[in-house]
């Protein structure tokens, strides 16, 4: 069971002068779900090396069992610090892909041609594609084998407009995940803000927010076991 995790390399929060990147919980929780299930993991990012961590996700209030475990796990820290370059990755080598969120992916992975092609190839091969929180933004330009946008007509979830409003970044992000998924023809649905909410349609798994990252990882394992 070879699972690829793709993280952002983007660290600037628009023109605010603040830092962004990936969200720690959304990496750590799935990482341990997969690891504990015996999966072989590869971590990739557009630039390779250490992906930028959203400093807010390192805040004491944002810590969970998984992030605490990560902070005492030198091996996992080393794996994260040495991500391979995304353009060196071949879809054929993996059984599934998981995209953790954070605001970073809205700037780089959503527009990254290698990422778009990777998702298209994996999906066309019937392999699970999962993305949580802001990471469903990476599906923005991804097409299905029929040439239409992948999310069109599919049940999808992702960071809500009200959650974006709550973190006061509505006017900073390049696009709103909820709006993009809806405008792309996705059958967008959501749960209560900040509560776990995951939608699976076929081999596409999307989760709403940080709390959805662990259940989304379990959904991906379920698909792989089928």
From TrEMBL:
Protein name, UniProt field: Type 1 glutamine amidotransferase domain-containing protein
The keyword Transferase is annotated on this UniProt entry: yes
Domain DJ-1/PfpI: 24-222
Coiled-coil intervals: none
Family classification: Belongs to the peptidase C56 family. HSP31-like subfamily.
CDD domains hit by this protein: GATase1_Hsp31_like
GO terms under biological process: methylglyoxal catabolic process to D-lactate via S-lactoyl-glutathione
InterPro entries: Class_I_gatase-like (IPR029062), DJ-1/PfpI (IPR002818), Prot/Nucl_acid_deglycase (IPR050325)
GO molecular function annotations of the record: glyoxalase III activity; transferase activity
Ranges for region Disordered: 44-73
GO CC field: cytoplasm
Key words of the record: Glutamine amidotransferase, Lyase, Stress response, Transferase
Organism in which the protein naturally occurs: Hymenobacter metallicola
